Amino acid sequence: MLLLFPEDLVRPGLARLSGRRLEHVREVHRAEVGDDLAVGLLGGPMGQGRVLRLEEGVLELDLSLDQAPPPKLPLTLVLAVPRPKVLNRVVAAAASLGVAHLVLLNAWKVEKAYWASPRMKPESLREQLLLGLEQAKDTVLPEVTLARLFRPFVEDELPGLVAGGTGLLAHPGTGGTAPRVPAAPITLAIGPEGGWIDAEVQSLLQAGLQPLDLGPRILRTETALAALVGRLF
Amino acid sequence: MLLLFPEDLVRPGLARLSGRRLEHVREVHRAEVGDDLAVGLLGGPMGQGRVLRLEEGVLELDLSLDQAPPPKLPLTLVLAVPRPKVLNRVVAAAASLGVAHLVLLNAWKVEKAYWASPRMKPESLREQLLLGLEQAKDTVLPEVTLARLFRPFVEDELPGLVAGGTGLLAHPGTGGTAPRVPAAPITLAIGPEGGWIDAEVQSLLQAGLQPLDLGPRILRTETALAALVGRLF
Questions:
Q1: A135 φ, ψ to 5°?
Q2: What is the pLDDT of residue A181?
Q3: Exposed (0-12), middle (13-18) or buried (19+): which is B164, by Cβ within 10 Å?
Q4: Handedness of CA A179, A181, A185, A186 (dihedral sign)
Q5: pTM for this structure?
Q6: A119-162: per-residue pLDDT in tens?
Q7: CATH number at residue B32
Q8: Could you tell me the CATH number of the domain that includes residue B178?
Q9: One domain, residues A14 and A97
Q10: Total tally of structural domains belonging to chain A
Q11: Of A30, A102, B119, B149, which has the most beta carbons under 10 Å away?
Q12: Which residues from B are below 8 Å from A232, CB to CB?
């Protein structure tokens, strides 16, 4: 699906694109005048865009946007900041799976350099979220929170997120099993490579999370995330 | 986890490594003499390897292998061959998730060039499977079947795989919902980018698969696979 931004709209019902997305439509979609493309307006409805003009430098689409985007999962993902190499994949996967709110949290085993990575900049995170939305045919960006300090977030913010729903702490070796159909909204915390340290586990449990053991297999973060979403929703 | 091969064993209980894995232990594990490493013997038990010698060109480990590898999922994954770029990730993810048997199947929308890719060679597939096993702390390779012809596999082999268990066809827009706790063994078919064509869907249904609709979100193959495994097991 091609995501359109408010500034692409020349007037209601007509979009004009140039640059990277124009090239993408030419080269990947191989669209021609008269073709219908699946499109969605960021934060708004989805539908079809019929190609009116496709020339060097300009693509015009006649829009009929009559579909609602898919509902978000009632899921807050609290993710210890992964290595930059892993971050992009996990952020895009979270958006494609329909995570409503993504919290990137510091932890003992999160290296300081991860926070300084260009991939942690808001525009880079947004780019990955947009890729995830395009993949999944969704138009609504998840909310993103950067929690650079573990304790203030876990002690002051997390109990409020968990209240009235279910909080889950993915942690191997705990033997914890989630309720088969947990009460929504769900808050799910996934640790860094190497796991949470004991003091972090204690803080997260005190904030209202229940331990959830994924079994003996250690999965990559984005694989574990998708498996948990498949299990919980 | 460090995977050991039968040829690494100098005698029972003593492994000698060189080359890439030696470098990995030096540089990533940063191991020193006396350290214990998590190790597993390909196709056999897992446990600890204590570093006896670590010099230029040789690593010796004193092994105590007393743990069984985690059980495989009773799952045959029938996967339309993905683009080479995607193949590696999906194969490693399938191994890490515990898929017992992986069938790489031709389909209408599988380009011929995919079959000719170096990544489809047995040694390349094996490398990705081993990476998945190391990630997940498992030692048992999944069985792999290359099914270059769709109809003979689906008409002659697939019904036998499905008999006595549950066959599922992941296919968007069908509205099908899997049984909440499907009878094992499970055979799960996942289509190519762009999906199965109608004639393929008909053949797969005739072979005994039930349609399973994953909802409105279109997920990347490895994300869909993990979500399905989380849902089914």
A1: -60, -45
A2: 73
A3: exposed
A4: positive
A5: 0.94
A6: 999 999 999 999 999 999 999 999 999 999 999 999 999 999 99
A7: 2.40.240.20
A8: 3.40.1280.10
A9: no
A10: 2
A11: A102
A12: 230
Distance CA B157, CA B155 (A): 6
> Considering only CB atoms, which chain B residues are within 8 Å of A226?
219, 222-227, 230
Contact B137/B1 with Cβ under 8 angstroms?
Answer: yes
Last residue of one domain, picked from the residues A51, A67, A83 = A67
Residues B42 and B89 in one domain: no
A135 and B216 within 8 Å at the Cβ level: the answer is: no
ipTM score for this prediction: 0.93
User: Does pLDDT of B62 surpass 80?
Assistant: yes
Q: What is the pLDDT of residue A28?
A: 84
On whether both A118 and A173 belong to a single domain, the answer is yes
Q: Is B212 on the interface with A (CB under 8 A)?
A: no
Instruction: Please state which of the ranges A66-70, B133-137, B146-150, B194-198 shows the lowest mean pLDDT.
Output: B194-198
Whether A220 contacts chain B with CB within 8 A: yes
Q: State both tokens at A148.
A: 């650079």
Is residue A122 located within the same domain as residue A198? Answer: yes
Q: Does the beta carbon of A46 lie under 8 angstroms from any beta carbon of chain B? A: no
Of B41, B67, B93, the residue at which a domain comes to its end is B67
Cross-chain residue pair A226–B231, CB shorter than 8 Å: no
CB contact under 8 A, A220 and B97: no
Sort out which chain A residues have CB atoms less than 8 A from B96's CB and list them.
Answer: 217, 219-220, 223
d(CA A77, CA A161): 11
Looking at the DSSP assignment, which residues form a beta bridge with residue B102? B77, B144
Q: Which domain holds residue B60?
A: 2-67
Out of B96, B227, B232, the one facing A229 most closely (by C-beta) is B227
Of the candidates A92, A104, A189, A102, the residue with the CA atom closest to the CA atom of residue A138:
A92
pLDDT score of B201: 96
For residues A90 and A186, membership in a common domain is answered with yes
Model confidence at B176: pLDDT above 80: no
Task: Give the best residue of B2, B86, B217, B232 to mutate against chain A (max A CB count within 10 A).
Answer: B217
pLDDT of residue B19: 86
A138, A215, A223: residue with CB nearest B217:
A138
Q: Prior bond to B45 cis, omega within 30?
A: no
B15 and B114 part of one domain: no
Contact call for B215 and A138, based on CB within 8 A: no
Say if residue A118 is in the same domain as residue A221: yes
Cβ contact (<8 Å) for B219 and A138? no
Report B:99-158 residues touching A (Cβ under 8 A).
135-138
**A18-76 pLDDT per residue, tens:** 888 888 888 888 899 999 999 999 999 999 999 999 988 899 999 999 999 999 999 99
